[in-house]
Amino acid sequence: MGGDIALEPFGAAWAWIPNQLRSLAARWPLCRAVLCDADPALLRTLPQGEVEVGAWVVGLASGGLFLSDDLRVLDDQRPDWALTPRLVAGALAGDCAQPVDLVPESPPDDLASALGDFAAGEGRHVVPARWTGRSGEILINVDDTARDVAGQTVPPHTVVLPVAYGRPAE
Known about the structure:
Layout: E1 6-7, E2 11-12, H1 16-31, H2 48-61, H3 78-82, H4 85-92, E3 98-99, H5 114-120, E4 130-133, E5 136-141, E6 147-149, E7 152-154, E8 158-160
Antiparallel strand pairs: 1-2, 3-4, 4-5, 5-8, 6-7
């Protein structure tokens, strides 16, 4: 569906995840008809918020939900960051999530790349922050600073799950 999210010699890095999300936003209508396969959720080294965002990118694509890390060598809590019941249910539902605000309010001056973001040490991707699907609404901030999304402050590199279907978010 997009570029890899863990490249040698760089390993797992945040810069690759917004690029995957941008690819999903561009291809979501196709993902409703065919299997879109985002790269797996990476649990090994990223902080919790980034692991969760990466896992939700996989879940939003509703393709194959799989892991590439050796769970035997990870801290016990890391799989819980990526494999929440709501994410797994959404990923296995077979219904790709839809970006709510596909066209940005302020288009970027130039198109960012994962490698460029990695080299610069900052995120410059412009991607939809609101998604909706069988999992309810999902708010994602790939920016390096907090952002207001749908009236809710979303910290940087984080996913927020508002109340869905009358139940509190996980």
